[in-house]
Amino acid sequence: QVRLVESGGGLVQPGGSLRLSCAASGRTFRIMGWFRQAPGKERESVAGISRFGIETYYSDSVKGRFIISRDDAKNTVYLQMNDLKPEDTAVYYCAGGGTYSTREYDSWGQGTQVTVSS
Fold it and tell me: Residue 107 burial (CB < 10 Å; 0-12/13-18/19+)?
């Protein structure tokens, strides 16, 4: 059974940092990524990373503030979020897929809430 389990969400003040983790089991993914969905908005892609961390991509809204990484030995992907802003508030979802070039995902976690507020 394939599972993706996120952790690390919470409440943080503007300008603060959080680190999300996503532990995968049952399968090795060639691409792993993070998405987010704020209330009343569509889900958006945040970042993605290829196996062994050779390639990464970021949305313009988080570029320079967020860093995605992965530990293939632990089958885990991370999202280091720095200089957080209120507009980063959302449920963050981890995802995995079979092909980095197409950025297609077929497995999803249950999500973790990130709230940025003073």
Answer: middle
Q: Determine the residue type at 58.
A: Y
- Report which residue type is found at 83: D
**Residue 107 in tokens:** 């497995």
In the chain, % helix, strand, coil (3-state, to 5) comes to 5, 55, 40
Spatial separation of the C-alpha atoms in residues 2 and 26, rounded to whole Å: 4
Residue 64 CA to its chain's centroid (Å): 15
pLDDT tens track for 48-99? 999 999 999 999 999 999 999 999 999 999 999 999 999 999 999 999 998 8
pLDDT in tens, 21-60: 999 999 999 999 999 999 999 999 999 999 999 999 999 9
5, 7, 30, 63, 117 from 58: Cα distances, Å: 21, 20, 17, 6, 23
